[in-house]
C-alpha cells in the first residue's frame, strides 16, 4: 500500500512541479494523472499493483467531502449575502460541464467510428 500511495502522490507532485515550473495553464494533478497514464502504458503491471489501494480510496471517497461541508458551514454568512450570484455561477458551471462532457463523448464517438452504444 505504501508503494501505491507513494506512486500516486509522486505523480501528483511531479505534475505540480512541471506545471508550475513551466507555467502551464493545466492543474498539477491533471498533469500527474497524465504521467500516471503514461506509466500504465509503459508498465501495465502497475495497474494490478495499484488496484487494491485505489479500491480502498474509492470506497472511502465520501470522507473527502467532509472538509468541503465544514467549509460551507464555516462560510454561511458569505452564502447568505451572495446566494444569488453563487447560485447563478453554480447553475452556469454545471450546464457548461455537462455540455463539455457531451461534446467530449460525441467527439470520441466520432473519432472511434462508433455510431451506436
UniProtKB/TrEMBL annotation:
Membrane topology: Multi-pass membrane protein
Swiss-Prot/TrEMBL keywords: Cell membrane, Hydrolase, Membrane, Transmembrane, Transmembrane helix
Pfam families attached to this UniProt entry: LrgA
InterPro entries in the cross-refs: LrgA/CidA
Entry's localization field: Cell membrane
Gene Ontology MF annotations: hydrolase activity
Transmembrane domains' residue ranges: 25-42, 54-73, 85-108
Chief location category: membrane
Gene Ontology terms: cellular component: plasma membrane
Protein name: Putative effector of murein hydrolase LrgA, UPF0299 family
Annotated organism of origin: Citreimonas salinaria
Amino acid at each position: 500500500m505504501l508503494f501505491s500511495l507513494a506512486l500516486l502522490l509522486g505523480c501528483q507532485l511531479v505534475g505540480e512541479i512541471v506545471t508550475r515550473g513551466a507555467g502551464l495553464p493545466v492543474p498539477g494533478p491533471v498533469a500527474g494523472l497524465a504521467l500516471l497514464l503514461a506509466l500504465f502504458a509503459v508498465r501495465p503491471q502497475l495497474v494490478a499493483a495499484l488496484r487494491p489501494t485505489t479500491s480502498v480510496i474509492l470506497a472511502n471517497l465520501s470522507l473527502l467531502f467532509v472538509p468541503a461541508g465544514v467549509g460551507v458551514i464555516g462560510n454561511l454568512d458569505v452564502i447568505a449575502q451572495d446566494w444569488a450570484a453563487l447560485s447563478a455561477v453554480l447553475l452556469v458551471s454545471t450546464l457548461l460541464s455537462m455540455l463539455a462532457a457531451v461534446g467530449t463523448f460525441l467527439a470520441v464517438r466520432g473519432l472511434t467510428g462508433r455510431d451506436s452504444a
